[in-house]
Every structure is written in structure tokens, then in C-alpha cells.
UniProtKB/TrEMBL annotation:
Domain of life: Bacteria
Name this protein carries in UniProt: Class I SAM-dependent methyltransferase
Alphabetized CDD domains for the sequence: AdoMet_MTases
Any Pfam family: Methyltransf_11
Length: 261
């Protein structure tokens, strides 16, 4: 289940990609499949071991094209172990809401991103997240849990302050907000409640089968109750012609700005 929309966020074979706070590796795997040279970084050693295993399995199965590479490593988002301008692309998905020094993380991402490079940031959307917090303290008051709820303008403002040039936004996972509301209402650790189990089955069916009905439903729900807010940006001072007038990569990207969170 991808949060970043790669039709809005162009990725070319050979691009150097950092998936920062990669978690289980969903975006890193997609970038690898698209021929990128991927580094998946997370501070969770157990998850990094699993991501490394999946990278190896993908290589053995021939799921990545020739020239693509993938590395999984532990690291600190506030002290990235890379030289300046090491990457063409940085992705940070559902991570910044966990980190007290979010400005420090943005500064590190900008440091390792080359001029003209692209960055995708995703965070829980303000409205659906606010409902989760209202329904359950246990949803966010846990070690490593969510410490803030971003409004769209706040996140975009911090990205601009860090030296980035946002060029597009959208919302994702409209079908997932009701699931988390049910989880919060019945207990975040109570997966046996009938409404939670039933809705989970629906989500698994949607992810596995991608039926037209749920795809259309999510497309309609995303602008209204999409669980995630996604922002795309470039690092300025790119070579002449690398950016369009609106700051978007001059590669035919279809990035658009939808309703604010």
C-alpha cells in the first residue's frame, strides 16, 4: 500500500533514493522495482533486518531491473551518515509526526538532497487524525507514538523554511480513516471487535484484489477523509530547465494541489 503517488513524483532508473524511516519498506521496494539505487534507513534494527531480507528475495526473484541496487541500514534521521547532496530523491512517509525535532529532520533531508532533487513527505491528515486523538488516548500516548498533528499549511511552511519548494499535494487512503476510527473507538489493541475485524477484511480484500468499486470509492473519499496528507517539493538552485515555472520537475509530472487538510 503506497502513500506516495509515483505518477506525481517522477522516479527514473538509476536515481539515488533515500527512504528515510522506511519502516517495513513499502516505498523502498517500489523504488527498487522501478530501477532506483535505494537506501532504506530506519533506527529499528528488527525492521531493517526484514527489509534487507526482502531486498535479497526481490533480487533473487528478478523483480528489480539491471542496474538497480538496494541497501537497508540503521541510522538516525537527525544525523544522516551521508555526504551532502548524496541523493536525487528523498521519501519520508508517516515519520515526522513521531519526531520532536521535525525541523532538524527536514534540514538533514535538504542537506543530503542534490539541488534539483525531489522530496516526498507524508503525514497523517489533520481532520482524521484529530478524530483518532479524540477517541483514544492510547492511539497516540505510547512510546514512539504521534506527538503532533500537522495542518497542511504548517507542514508546507516548515518545508519552505527548510529551503524546499513545494509543487504539489494530495490526500491518500480515504478508506483507511474509518478503520482507524473503529480501532480507536473499540480499543487500539482490540482487533477482535466485530466491526474492526470486518472492516479489516475489507481493506485486505481491497489491497489484494484492487476491485474497481473500492478504487472509485477511495478516489472519491481521498479529498474528504484521506488518512494521509502528501506533499511533494524540489530543492531549488537546479540547473536551468530542470524545474517548471511552478517548481515541478520538467518531466511531465501531473502533480496538482488538492484541498488543504
Amino acid at each position: 500500500m503506497l502513500t506516495v503517488d509515483f505518477s506525481r513524483f517522477p522516479l527514473a532508473p538509476g536515481d539515488r533514493v533515500l527512504d528515510l524511516g522506511c519502516g517495513a519498506g513499502r516505498h523502498a521496494f517500489e523504488c527498487y522495482r522501478r530501477g532506483a539505487r535505494v537506501v532504506a534507513l530506519d533506527r529499528n534494527a528488527e525492521e531493517i533486518r526484514e527489509v534487507a531480507k526482502w531486498f535479497a528475495a526481490m533480487k533473487e526473484a528478478g523483480e528489480a531491473p539491471a542496474g538497480a541496487t538496494a541497501t537497508a541500514m540503521e541510522g538516525d534521521a537527525l544525523a544522516l551518515p551521508f555526504p551532502d547532496e548524496s541523493f536525487d530523491v528523498v521519501i519520508i512517509s508517516e515519520v515526522m509526526e513521531h519526531i520532536p525535532d521535525d525541523k532538524g529532520v527536514l534540514a538533514e533531508m535538504v542537506r543530503v538532497l542534490r539541488p534539483g532533487g525531489r522530496i516526498a513527505v507524508t503525514v497523517p491528515r489533520y481532520g482524521p487524525e484529530k478524530i483518532c486523538w479524540a477517541l483514544s488516548d492510547a492511539y497516540h500516548e505510547v512510546e514512539g507514538g504521534h506527538i503532533r498533528i500537522y495542518k497542511a499549511d504548517e507542514l508546507l511552511g516548515k518545508m519552505r523554511e527548510a529551503g524546499l519548494r513545494p509543487y504539489g499535494t494530495h490526500h491518500a487512503h480515504g478508506l483507511h480513516s474509518p478503520y482507524w476510527w473503529l480501532k480507536c473507538a473499540f480499543g487500539v489493541d482490540n482487533d477482535q471487535a466485530l466491526p474492526v475485524r470486518a472492516y479489516h477484511k475489507l481493506l485486505v480484500w481491497d489491497i489484494m484484489k484492487k476491485p474497481l468499486a473500492t478504487r472509485l470509492a477511495e478516489q472519491a473519499l481521498n479529498p474528504v477523509i484521506g488518512k494521509s496528507f502528501v506533499a511533494y517539493a524540489t530543492k531549488p538552485h537546479a540547473p536551468q530547465g530542470a524545474l517548471g515555472e511552478d517548481g515541478a520537475p520538467a518531466t511531465g509530472s501531473h502533480a496538482t494541489t488538492e484541498g488543504r487538510a
